[in-house]
Amino acid sequence: MNHKLTAQPALIDPFGRTVNYLRISVTDRCNLRCVYCMAEDMIFLPREQLLSLEEIETIAKAFVGLGVNKIRLTGGEPMVRKGIVGLCEKLSSLDGLNELVMTTNGVLLDQHANDLAKAGVKRLNISLDSLQAKRVKQITRHGQLADVLSGIEAAGNAGFERIKLNVVVLAGVNDDEVIDLAEFALVRGFDISFIEEMPLGEISSHKRKDTQVASLSLAQRLAEKFDFEPENNLDLNSNQLSNKGPSRYQKVSGYTGRIGFISPMTDNFCSRCNRVRLTSEGKLLLCLGNEHSMDLREIVRDNTNAEVDLPIAIRDAITRKPEKHHFDANKTDIIRFMNMTGG
Ligand code: SAM
Ligand code: SF4
Questions:
Q1: What are the pLDDT digits (tens) for 188-234?
Q2: For a substitution probing ligand 1, which of 72, 127, 288 has the most ligand atoms within 8 Å of its CB?
Q3: Domain of residue 266, CATH code
Q4: Structurally, how many domains does the chain consist of?
Q5: By CB neighbour count within 10 A (0-12 exposed, 13-18 middle, 19+ buried), where does 277 fall?
Q6: Ligand 2 site, residue 276, Cβ cutoff 6 A
Q7: Would you say residue 15 lies in a domain?
């Protein structure tokens, strides 16, 4: 089963976008229950429905053979998947993959950051929505700020090329902390991204239309405190936060880290989309905000011809990648929770 994959034409969708980035949800399970991501009582998939580590590796290899050069492992919480470090070792050695990266809530990083770095994970995104212990507990339902902070410290010492903190900003919950959080990241040389909450999965903790915070308003507030460098200045006077290139990172004078904005609700970035997502049960999702998908588990499971069948199926799926999402904070059209999707 170790055939050399011959170079194949890139994956290009009907809108001319090249797909070179795969996000893999390695598990739907999590040690936290963040209010924007999950319901309090979640029913997780029966284990046999999850892709095995070998199946994930086979699918990843097929994507890399089709020109995908970046893979992000996510979930659920990737660190709760048994065997995750071994999977990282396998994936990072795939010929043609430039970057293996991971998104984690940081809770288990204290124990595993060094192993991940050694296994070839180049960069980490770590979720941190507040620097206040009480709020972290309220937002994550189970999380302890101290665990995440020691995880972040361990990651900082483990030799990753870059670390980014991810903050989902909710009005009236943590929006008063954006400057503190930015400072926390920047003084450590980390990047930080502020994310607009997306309406994925029905939740009961809050009404998403009431907690929306537009990136533009955050950027304006942050620009009063930090000196945004002019060469890639975001346009803070338009009615939408945008800059010239696809990057929505703002350089800040005096720091190596940058401030980023992920604005799925107020600035549709779909024309720049280069990614697809593999769910923990093996569905290839072609867009975060649409249900278009293809079942790759069916193709990879118990199939000795998977290495031939997978590229054909993946190419076929890419022809169905939707042009854009249509998120509306007033309604939840997508019933999938973010932990299923792989954020
Ligand atoms: N458990 C890991 C973590 O929290 O970093 C990885 C999975 S989590 C689903 C990936 C990212 O999605 C996190 O940064 C999280 O904050 C974000 N996220 C979850 N639900 C979201 C939502 N409804 N809208 C926007 N971002 C969300
Ligand atoms: Fe778990 Fe991450 Fe979702 Fe929070 S955002 S519940 S840590 S998967």
A1: 999 999 999 988 777 777 888 888 999 999 999 999 999 998 766 66
A2: 127
A3: 3.20.20.70
A4: 1
A5: buried
A6: no
A7: no
